[in-house]
Design brief:
Bound molecules: ligand T4K
Shape: globular
CATH architecture of the largest domain: 3-Layer(aba) Sandwich
Number of helices: 12
Order of helices and strands: EHHEHEHEEHEEEEEHEEHHEEEHHEHEH
CATH superfamily of the largest domain: Type I PLP-dependent aspartate aminotransferase-like (Major domain)
Strand order of the largest sheet: 2-10-9-6-5-3-4
CATH class of the largest domain: Alpha Beta
Strand content: 15-25%
Length: about 375
């Protein structure tokens, strides 16, 4: 029996990739915003319908860079949610801001927009919501709150590449959105990420931040770092972009099979489809209620593991419960996030996951059910 991991990187045929990188071999130009970087950036701008895309070596540095580029007052508070990957909270803290944690919506697991306003103080400078699992935050309510209180909105859209709401790419909401193109994502550039934004004045600052503030061979105008996407990653992005629609279509079949087999099972909650949203089927979270289902999340995880199926507990623990933040944040302050984190399991999903494997995974899960 082959092992099944939570995801598997999608890759183009090796010939397609070698063909794409051939000119890099010929030119010896490997990084620093070369031809592949320029082409990939233009393709993304056109596909996402946004004015600006800045490419990065990963999503995390993209997030740190946009936080710095916006020039928000240091020490300010940023309202966010703790039900996310380490990156979101770390980016806020590492950039010199104080995260203020808002609870999540019990259905979408994204920030509960109805609880944001009560957390706003005179120190609040921004809202940093996460489109968790590709579920879209309440972008309209968040825009209304941000407008009323003059706050910046930066979306962590790491999970939401190619998702659209009312026909508009998620990349267009807020002041900026960060995407991750990590190997584990629906769309990957091996490692990589991007920031999408509208304000022209951010362009130079983002360039400065990701390339040492260098303006010319003899001119360094800003204390920047290095966070550039290299030519090989950009070439991977160009190739994978050609297959994105097919990738999402295949994922949708896996997703549908899970829903068919697990949907409606008492004590097992699945995310409902969101109205007006075109999804990317990035993750398949299932939330277990032991009293009703008959087994808790950890028992299901273990049973799957014993059968060589490696689901993941994204996102457990919540970031406020991390060792590195001990005594600093209170996990109990966001009870919904805390509860879901203890009961959620993200099941394997990727384009080439065979439907027979989905059947096997569901069979293992359902064998633990008492009903
Ligand atoms: N914000 C959010 C909400 C995020 O979820 C993330 C990243 C970020 C920000 C930051 O973006 P990046 O800076 O990473 O671009 C993974 C990813 O490393 C991370 O990118 C992702 N979120 C997070 C949710 O998942 P791990 O520690 O679970 O990865 P790992 O190495 O255990 O891999 C998981 C599975 O993926 C493996 O079991 C098999 C498969 N895999 C993995 C790798 C590395 C592949 O098929 N190919 C591969 O190359 O964090």
């Amino acid at each position: 029996m082959d092992e099944i991991l939570v995801t598997r990187s999608s890759m183009p045929d090796i010939e397609e990739y070698t063909n794409e990188i051939k000119e890099l071999w010929d030119s010896h130009w490997l990084t620093n915003m070369g031809v592949k970087h320029k082409q990939f950036q233009a393709e993304l701008e056109s596909m996402l319908g946004v004015k600006h895309v800045a490419l990065y070596c990963n999503g995390h540095l993209a997030l740190e860079n946009i936080l710095e580029a916006l020039g928000l007052p240091k020490g300010g508070e940023i309202i966010t949610s703790p039900f996310t990957f380490a990156s979101t909270t770390h980016a806020i803290v590492r950039s010199g801001y104080t995260p203020v944690f808002c609870d999540i919506d019990p259905v979408t697991y994204t920030i509960d927009a109805d609880k944001i306003e009560e957390l706003i103080t005179e120190k609040t400078v921004a809202i940093l919501p996460v489109h968790v699992y590709g579920n879209i935050c309440d972008v309209e309510k968040i825009a209304e709150i941000a407008g009323k209180h003059e706050l910046k909105v930066i979306y962590d859209a790491a999970h939401a590449f190619a998702v659209s709401y009312k026909g508009k790419s998620v990349a267009g909401f807020g002041d900026a959105s960060m995407f991750s193109f990590h190997a584990t994502k629906v769309f990957n550039t091996i490692e990589g990420g991007a920031v999408c934004y509208h304000d022209d004045s951010l362009e130079q600052r983002l360039k400065d931040l990701k390339n040492f503030g260098i303006h010319g061979p003899e001119e360094v105008a800003y204390v920047g770092g290095n966070a550039k996407m290299n030519e090989f990653c950009a070439a991977m992005g160009i190739c994978n972009l050609r297959h994105l629609a097919d990738e999402i279509k295949k994922r949708s079949a896996v997703y549908a099979r899970y829903r068919e087999l697990l949907g409606g099972k008492e004590g097992l909650t699945l995310c409902p489809a969101q109205e007006d949203v075109t999804p990317n089927y990035a993750y398949f979270p299932a939330v277990f209620d032991k009293a009703v289902f008959g087994a808790d999340r950890d028992e299901v995880y273990k049973e799957l593991e014993d059968n060589k199926v490696f689901a993941r507990k994204y996102f457990y623990p919540i970031t406020t419960a991390f060792d590195c933040y001990k005594g600093r944040f209170d996990p109990e302050a966001t009870p919904v996030a805390l509860d879901i984190s203890k009961r959620v399991l993200t099941l394997p999903i990727y384009a080439d996951l065979a439907l027979e494997d989905v059947d096997r995974i569901c069979g293992i899960i359902l064998s633990l059910s008492k009903t």
